[in-house]
Amino acid sequence: MPADPLKLMIVDDHPVVRDGLRGMFDHVADIEVVAEASDGFEALAMARKTGPHVVLMDLRMPGLDGVGAIQRLRADHPEIKVVVLTTYDTDADVARAMAAGVAGYLLKDAPREELHRAVRTAAAGGAVLAPSVASALMSRPAAQEPSPRELEVLRLVARGSANKEIARALLISETTVKTHLKHVFAKLGVDSRAAAVVVAMERGLL
Amino acid sequence: MPADPLKLMIVDDHPVVRDGLRGMFDHVADIEVVAEASDGFEALAMARKTGPHVVLMDLRMPGLDGVGAIQRLRADHPEIKVVVLTTYDTDADVARAMAAGVAGYLLKDAPREELHRAVRTAAAGGAVLAPSVASALMSRPAAQEPSPRELEVLRLVARGSANKEIARALLISETTVKTHLKHVFAKLGVDSRAAAVVVAMERGLL
DNA sequence: CACCCCATCCTCCGAAAGGGGGATGGAGGG
DNA sequence: CCCTCCATCCCCCTTTCGGAGGATGGGGTG
Question: Which phi and psi angles does A40 have, rounded to 5°?
Answer without folding.
Answer: -65, -40
